[in-house]
Amino acid sequence: MSDDNNSHPDDVSTAKVLELYGCVMFRTQILESDMQIVLTVLEKAGIVQIDREEYKVRQDKYGVIEACIGPMIYWLQEHSTIDVPKGMAEDLTKANRQRNHLAHTFLIRNSSNFRTRRGRLLLYQKLLMIQAHIIRVSNGIIHVRNELYSQQGLTEDIMQARLEKHIKRIEQSDRQ
After folding, report:
1. Residue 8: inside a domain, yes or no?
2. Staple partner for 7: which of 2, 67, 109, 122, CB 3.0–4.6 Å?
3. Closest CA to 64 of 93, 49, 44
4. 48: domain range?
5. Could you give the angle at the alpha carbon of 8 between the alpha carbons of 2 and 13, nearest 5°?
6. CB environment 93-112: b (16+ within 10 A), e (fewer)
7. What is the mean pLDDT of residues 12-21?
8. DSSP one-letter code for 85
């Protein structure tokens, strides 16, 4: 059996299923984080208008919007000057449903499957399918983010340098 999470092992231990579960949950967090960055850039560019008071929107110490995937999809669809392609909106909505299922019900609803080899294999395969969708959606969001950077004349190197500079300023102000 390979340690690669994309393999289809013949026998899957509970530990292996839970390891993949953790990896898929981590990927959903990365998707959410990338969407927060994209939404922040869109808002700063005036493409998305969010009534921060009405929606009780918070931001982290770096100025990035803190929000869950569901509200971000809504804001992109209802409060932006761009048309979100239907397929992208559907993919984001499905990814959000998958994320919520993983976070709130997946383990409890599938707890009996951990008892048998076949059940664990089914869980592993379910997780691989969810992971594949999350990765595809994440790649789409990363593409949108990179396009936004490009339109602004920015590269990932420039953005990384700006982020590091911004983080240093925040760290310095935290020490004062």
Report:
1. no
2. 2
3. 44
4. 14-175
5. 70
6. eebbebbeebeeebeeebee
7. 95
8. P
Q: How confident is the model at residue 108 (pLDDT cuts 50, 70, 90)?
A: very high
Quick check: is 7 in a domain?
no
Among candidate residues 130, 137, 110, 138, the one with its CA nearest the CA of residue 24: 130
- Please, which pLDDT band fits residue 3 given cuts at 50, 70 and 90? very low
Burial class of residue 159 in the structure, from the number of CB atoms within 10 Å of its CB (0-12 exposed, 13-18 middle, 19+ buried): middle
Q: What is the 3-state secondary structure (H, E, C) of 22-46?
A: HHHHHHHHHHHHHHHHHHHHHHHCC
Instruction: Count the residues in the chain.
Output: 176
- Asked, for residue 56, whether it belongs to a domain, the answer is yes
Task: Give the chain's domain count.
Answer: 1
Question: Cβ neighbours of residue 36 under 8 Å, at least 6 residues apart?
Answer: 64, 65, 66, 67, 72
